[in-house]
Design a protein that fits this description.
The chain is mainly alpha-helical and 184 residues long. It is 60% helix and 0% strand. It is built from ten helices and no strands.
Length: 184
């Protein structure tokens, strides 16, 4: 599946603009992680872009979210490791723990986007260009800030060999490259 086909699929399943922005941001971050680790940038980008296809149809039910997306992607013939990473980005639905590099990368990468967006929105200009990676890592310690963002998922970056400070910088930079596409 190429990116244009993936975008068509994304738009078919996700109608909420902010959720689409999250998916675009996740794609950018996953591509950056793939570059950093020497992995398949296209495949990892598709995982980021498509990981939440079922969020609206399952109403983000933690017992089902990810499983429907995995089914859809499997039917579309996407690689098994991509489908597995997408399914495992929500461990609760599977009853299993993440164990592969791809699984950890997707969980960390898609989660940090929420923290970065929340950090951006407290800046006076609400622009990614103003966000410093250090501000993101500082916000990691503030449990009340963006309280729904699971910090433990973000820390999975360390399981793939990327220290948190470097991961925050890599992610902020990746999202800056698409700032106009996500309204920031």
């Amino acid at each position: 599946m190429n990116r244009e086909e993936a975008l068509t699929l994304l738009h078919e399943y996700i109608k909420d603009e902010k959720m689409r922005y999250h998916c675009y941001a996740s794609e950018a971050v996953l591509r950056a992680i793939a570059r950093r680790l020497g992995r398949d940038e296209e495949k990892w980008g598709l995982a980021g872009l498509l990981h939440d296809l079922d969020v609206e149809m399952t109403e983000a039910d933690p017992k089902r979210h990810g499983l429907e997306t995995a089914r859809i992607l499997e039917e579309k013939g996407l690689d098994a490791d991509l489908v597995d990473a997408v399914k495992m980005h929500n461990e609760e639905a599977t009853g299993q723990e993440r164990s592969t590099e791809f699984q950890h990368a997707l969980a960390a990468g898609e989660t940090i986007t929420g923290l970065i967006i929340a950090t951006t929105l407290v800046y006076p200009d609400k622009k990614l260009a103003s966000v410093k990676p250090k501000s993101v890592t500082k916000r990691m310690k503030e449990k009340a800030f963006a309280a729904s963002v699971k910090r433990d998922h973000i820390r999975e970056c360390e399981k793939i060999g990327i220290p948190l400070n470097e991961f925050a910088a890599l992610s902020v930079e990746a999202m800056r490259e698409i700032a106009d596409d996500i309204g920031l």
